[in-house]
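TICKET #2291
ISSUE: user wants both folds in one file
ATTACHMENT 1:
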Amino acid sequence: MPYKVKLKLKLTRRRSAGFTLIELLVAITILAIVAVLGWRGLDSIVRARQALNAEMAQTRGIQLAFAQMENDCAHLMDAVMLPGRSVLNAAGNKLVLIRSVFEDGQPVRYQVVAYSVVEGALGRRELPPRREITALERDWEGAVGDTDGARVITLQTGVNSIAMRTWKQGETGWRVGGNDVQNPGGQTPQNPAFPPTPAGPKTEKLSGLEVSLQVKGRDAPMIKVFLLGAS
């Protein structure tokens, strides 16, 4: 066999025996690129899932806070029972109200409840149920002035601010804040805890409350409207 043919056969066998260094480097580079692209895609999916879970948890927390507010507003004390006084005050970053408490085997009692946003957290605190008007007035003043000492239960964190508007019967629009002062000097229903006073002029009471929470990470506030004294 000619020498040139033998040499050509040897070169062909060597080339078919394995990959060259350049071929290996190219393959490794391609695999690295694919791995980086796959890692980035997986990382973006994980981040999106975490953000979605956090948003869902935040929405669920706000919904639970609104549900508690709705329950308190539905049991709002009838303002005619406290002539010349307020049973709901929505001002600044605080909502204070007096709600009725119904328990089996117990007479109807009344309880001061306060909501406020402090250091990015929406909190609720409630004072003991009362039957005496003097104790109820003392609790009200303490809640308004933040001197009641009641334990604060955090309903939701990441709340930047709270804004409230009220709807009063006989009016045609929302008003910022507001309170529910009924019967200044007017007659109250017969109730042993709240003695009647001489008859006098009667004002229209509040019938609706709008609460707007500006939550961290959301462009638009979360808004809920409640009926007052619905139950």
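ATTACHMENT 2:
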Amino acid sequence: MANKYNIESSEFQALKTASKKMFHIITKQLNVNTAYVARRGDTAMTVLSSLNQEEEMVPEGFSLEYSGSYCRLVIQDDNEAISIVNGSKDELTRELEVTSEIGTKGFLGVTLADAKGNVFGTLCVLDKEEKEFSEEDIDYLKSMAEVLSYIIELDQTKYNMAYLSVPIIPITKGVSVLPIQGIIDENRAADITNTVLQYGSKHQMDYFIIDMSGLVILDDEFPHVIITLVKSLQLMGIETIITGISPEIAKHEVNNMQFKELSAKKVPDLESALEYIGFYLTEKGESITS
């Protein structure tokens, strides 16, 4: 199962803050001990935020293999909701290890999606007492999940906004660094290409160091814009040096002939790139010398 989100669970700060405030209302409205939001990962469900009124049943950070979780039942249900009166007796949950581990009886969970409809995880409540949830209860929890869907989008947008600019760092005359961060989609690819080529021409660049240590590979697809950018710079007479090729990138691009055959120097880090050009970093943060 592919993870559609490129930010770590710890970075969903808006979702955590908003959900915690909502949990107080939800647990009171549905008369339950616990409410929580779980994020679906590649193989497991992880609790991002939770509220346990009297007894701690689901702590934050709790992670459970997807196949053995209640959340799987919620996400796979046609109605995107599961209501269980007694988890220890219900045929869907009585054999699950988590039922006896947590002591779950009453349970209600709904699918939590982002504003585009992509499944993020679940919003759930549970209790150690039997609970019979009504259709109104289910609709209520779904409405709370809908509110949270926009918070998820906010977190994702805030994360992506940090990478919308094209930060070119001048090192010395004729030498600059382009740190590539995050995901490169079609729009951002066009921005990077236009900005870098115009900058290279305007400032009469000799070398561009492209640092890929912050690049995020999505769906195992290397961004072709980097290959295009290197070739375009070379046509302009600007030599390109590539740094920060991570083990993950190397593993995926080992058979990419276009990437392998690029006539660009590839070095481990910025210092190696500068040494290749003929510049050296002096100690104690002093300026670069040739």
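RESOLUTION: both attachments delivered.
EXTRA DETAIL ON ATTACHMENT 2: Residues 55 and 217 are 42 Å apart (CA to CA).
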